[in-house]
Design a protein that fits this description.
Blueprint lengths: L8 E2 L9 E8 L4 E7 L13 E10 L6 E7 L13 E6 L5 E9 L3 E9 L3
Parallel strand pairs: 1-8
Antiparallel strand pairs: 2-3, 3-6, 4-5, 4-7, 7-8
Protein name: Superoxide reductase
Keywords: Electron transport, Iron, Metal-binding, Transport
InterPro entries: Desulfoferrodoxin_Fe-bd_dom, Desulfoferrodoxin_Fe-bd_dom_sf, Desulfoferrodoxin_SOR
């Protein structure tokens, strides 16, 4: 039996254009603000033929078994032959504990990619 987890790819977002980068812009218990972007260091071509379809962001609080989805951003408009869409999002949510941020992105040609980052509340 093949599992979906076996098809998700990982890498260093500084060396691979499909891996979502996760940047914590601010972090306190009232509001966590996170920027998630595909193509931070190496631009991803976003054309009709080859594009990022979506980015999802999850928060896994310390001690929790399951993550909570905090964002689901879909990029449904793609320019034919032009790089119109810059696949990124700034997300704000509340968190009461430190934990992990987990991001996934989907390229219509190269599949699923993921990354993670620590969330330390300030």
């Amino acid at each position: 039996m093949e599992y979906l987890k076996d098809t998700v790819q990982v890498g260093d977002w500084k060396g691979e254009k499909h891996v979502p980068s996760i940047m914590v812009l601010s972090s306190d218990k009232n509001e966590v603000m996170v920027k998630v972007r595909v193509g931070e260091e190496i631009a991803h071509p976003n054309t009709f033929e080859h594009h990022i379809g979506w980015i999802k962001l999850y928060y896994l609080p310390e001690g929790a078994k399951l993550p909570v989805q905090v964002a689901d951003v879909n990029f449904t408009a793609h320019g034919e032959g032009n790089s119109l869409t810059d696949p990124q999002a700034v997300v704000a949510f509340k968190a009461e504990k430190n934990g992990k941020l987990l991001a996934q992105s989907y390229c219509n040609i190269h599949g699923l990619w993921e990354n993670e980052a620590e969330l330390v509340l300030g």
